[in-house]
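Example record

The entry below shows one chain as it appears in the dataset: sequence first, then structure tokens.
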Amino acid sequence: MKKQLVIAVAAATMAMGALSVNAYEQGDIILRAGIVTVAPDADSDPIVLPDPVGTLPSGVDVDDDTQISIIGTWMMSDNWGLELLAATPFEHDIKVVDLGIPAGSTKHLPPTLSLQWYPRGNAEGWQPYFGVGVNYTAFFDEEVSPVLGGALGDLLGVTSAKLSLDDSVGLAVEAGVDVPLNEKWSLNLGVWYIDIGTTADIDVGFADGSNATVSFDVDIDPWVYNIGVAYKF
């Protein structure tokens, strides 16, 4: 995906480089919308379960999801902007790697506030930009899959299981480009790398009324890819 995005940026730049757009200036508002994909580069701690299962050393993996992006930037000066990345809620399936079965799913919202630098902000033409900021990821609607629930029941006598994920705060870096279509509209391509880490808690109940919690850390650390359009107000 990263290679395809680089190729797309290069192709769009060469194809539309002759077009011009008004320079970005202090006070401009740029609204971007499109399709955004969150592609986790997940790394999980081992999951320690009671015997006879024991430790699952590979932990969990998290799949990709694609949603609609809504991104706003306010130009504080000709070359510096403040961006807020938002999107419709993402939903990710989670897999127990060692057992090869679904663990569950979660939804999240990852608003990201970034300070951006536009090296060509006061010039007409294509507008590359670079940014660094902070991400807050709020997890909700976590669910344990029936497959995992059934496996825990068969192996450990578990009668109930509930998944919860801690919210995350982390750094984000980005790069992107607006390629002009006319004076107001541009094609937008962007990529972020976001530091997202969480602690997963699986609260389980047993037939005798006792309870236990299985906890493990997961670094999600996704690459985020956006393709869409930009409009300058």
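Notes for this example: Helices lie at 2-16, 146-156. Confidence is low (pLDDT under 50) at residues 2-18.
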